[in-house]
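Researcher: We're teaching a course module on how sequence relates to structure. For the next exercise, students receive a sequence and then see the predicted structure as tokens, so they can try to spot secondary structure elements on their own. Here is the exercise chain.
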Amino acid sequence: MFIEVRGVIDAKKGGRSYIIFYYNGKRYRFYNGKHLGLGIQPNKGELTQKKISASIELLRFKTMQALEDGWNPEEGNYIASDALLEEKNEKCVSSVFKSILESKTSSGISNSYKNDLTYLVNNFLNFLTKAEKDNNISELSSDRIVEFLDSFNSSATNYNNKRRMLSVLFNCIIERGYLLENPLKKTRKQKQKVVLNDVYTDREFKNLLRFLQENNNDLYVMGLIMYGCLLRPHTEILSLTRGNFNEDFSIITLGGNENKSGKIRKVNVPEYVREAIQDRIPLMKKDNTNLFTLANRKFNVGYFNTLWDRLKGIYFLFKIISYHNLFFFNIIQEVRIFYWQFFSIEIKIEIEGSTYDPFAWQIDKTINSSFNIIT
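Model: And here is the predicted structure for the students to work with:
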């Protein structure tokens, strides 16, 4: 029927490159992709030798694909068959990414990671033009990927996180055979500035626990269980119910679907943890009663973060007072603290053996939380 299509590149100035093949003994020569309904133009504009070669190779490949699909050049331009159109749609950028996202979100990854992947894919597809989304995944430009990542340049951490997640998606695309190489390999990581996090001393840790005990019992119980039982706070501890404890609350048992390892896990509960939750035990009558809500539900995953965000400003004041040798205090006098978010809570402070007035202090805005102290 036809002799293999080959490309001819004319390197001379003003020369024209093309593809050539024979069909039923007749020679055919094409200089662009109009016969296929494609906008391939290897001779138009100021193109480098490398780009001309790539365009001719693409034109050759697409023409071969059309001939194998049954196209007869004597009958006019090529119209793709339904099977080829379906295959093209399956390999277009939007379909591939949506398919990969569906596969990832139906796996056993965490909800926060699912949300991050969904956010990234939706943003990426919204960033691309309609033509780019309809193109074959193999035609996706690395320059466009870099341009998309540059929109997350607010910090090195943000950029690297998005780059890593996008790389995971492209690795899945490679596993399905749509691509041969991960285009993210051609991009560079941004250098991150590591933040120093000092370990609490025994004294500092005890002070923090005492502060939490006086100001928020949920955070206090969470801290004791986290360090006493080595459970993860935002998933395992937050989800604890009466059914996870044995009869005398001395052992916590987590099923495979309740912890990250996926295996059954048992941990001992120290005496000081049992004492801290003693008031809650009589209220946990059913197996599905949550340790923190004391109801058949749990708080949202950001519950502990929200509580700490509201209290950490007060804790910094606690540390400042301690630094000025005014460490020993009891909670006695009511003080209202107004946050810049218009959130207010009440605490009590009295400094023993001192006439120093802490309420005149103004905390600088550079300390994680901005607020004024009002007597």
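Model: If you want an answer key for the exercise: The chain has four domains: 2-80, 89-186, 202-301, 305-374. The domain at 89-186 is CATH 1.10.150.130 (DNA polymerase; domain 1).
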